[in-house]
Write a structure and sequence with these properties.
The chain is an alpha/beta fold. Strands 5-4-6-7-10 form a five-stranded parallel beta sheet. α6 packs across α7. The structure holds nicotinamide-adenine-dinucleotide (NAD). The site of nicotinamide-adenine-dinucleotide (NAD) has 24 residues, from α10.
């Protein structure tokens, strides 16, 4: 079975459109601020796609662009102003940032209630405690895909390949919370195939085309390919060798059209949630 992230993301977006219309009618127009520093071509594309997705569901987006050589203080001042602006519900800083920036410092400048990417250290800490503000978008998108495919996670062996702060680690926290027995494999794992072959649910987030082949997958496993790799011939592929993995897996996400569209859908969902929380706090005061 192919887990069609594009189709699911379209359904999520249709639901969000209704929520956005309701909030707007109540006087709260969900709004996302996007900060882009420099002219990295991939980042430009990501930001363009995020802004277009916002427009599609009726979320207002405001882009703030800074030159690659700008002083961090300028970006901090912009974040401070957005934190204080009640008409802005979500703030996103597109990564990577130029070398004069400490990315952690920048992300932590964002108010927790507006950290719709879920990258703030406090968000990640809270995620492990099961009381997060916002789940990071890519792992949240994976959880939606697994829920849609009615994958039973309770007691399942889940293996995540990759231990980044934005994908691998929060993915582990969410799967653990859902009742799975979680293993995180990474660049120093001794026998990767032996670990991946244990997985009922295998999530691969590394950035190496073809790292996981069909021979490394337990028959009947659910395989989620987070990787996005551009080959020399221009093709976009994941970290899993789809041709050999698909016949072995019970269900598998394609690249493109799997996790990628879900990541953007979850960013929109987090922005709507941020706006809903603001409306609730207004009503309560
Ligand atoms: P990262 O570079 O921060 O982390 C990669 C991880 O892979 C590291 O933890 C490292 O230990 C591990 N690794 C490296 N070589 C390995 C090996 N040989 N065996 C096992 N593990 C190994 O990357 P990231 O930001 O987590 O992103 C991972 C991939 O996911 C990239 O291709 C990225 O483009 C993609 N990505 C996709 C989405 C999406 O929406 N689909 C979102 C974020 C990232």
């Amino acid at each position: 079975m192919i887990l069609d992230g594009k189709a699911l993301a379209a359904r999520v977006r249709a639901e969000l459109k209704t929520s956005v219309a309701r909030l707007t009618a109540q006087g709260v127009k969900p709004t996302l601020a996007v900060i882009l520093v420099g002219d990295d071509p991939a980042s430009q594309v990501y930001v363009r796609n995020k802004i277009a997705a916002c427009g599609d569901v009726g979320i207002e987006s405001r882009a703030f662009r800074f030159p690659a050589d700008c002083a961090p203080a300028e970006v901090f001042a912009a974040i401070d102003a957005l934190n204080a602006d009640p008409t802005v519900h979500g703030i996103l800083v597109q990564l990577p940032l130029p070398p004069q920036f400490d990315e952690t410092e920048v992300i932590e400048r964002i108010a927790l209630a507006k950290d719709v990417d879920g990258f703030h250290a406090e968000n990640l800490g809270r995620l492990w405690q099961g009381r997060h503000c916002f789940a990071p978008c890519t792992p949240a998108g994976v959880m939606r895909l697994l829920a849609e495919a009615t994958v039973d996670l309770v007691g399942a062996e889940a293996v995540i390949v990759g231990r980044s702060n934005i994908v691998g680690k929060p993915m582990a926290a969410l799967l653990l919370q859902a009742g799975a027995t979680v293993t995180i494999a990474h660049s120093r794992t001794r026998d990767l195939a032996a670990v991946t072959r244990r997985a009922d649910v295998l999530v691969v987030a590394v950035g190496r085309p073809g790292l996981v082949t069909g021979a490394m997958i337990k028959p009947g496993a659910v395989v989620i390919d987070v990787g996005i790799n551009r080959l020399d011939d221009g093709r976009l592929v994941g970290d899993v060798d789809f041709a050999s993995a698909e016949p072995v897996a019970k269900a598998i996400t394609p690249v493109p059209g799997g996790v990628g569209p879900m990541t953007i859908a979850m960013l929109l969902a987090n922005t709507v949630t941020a706006a809903e929380r603001q409306l609730q706090s207004q009503d309560a005061s």
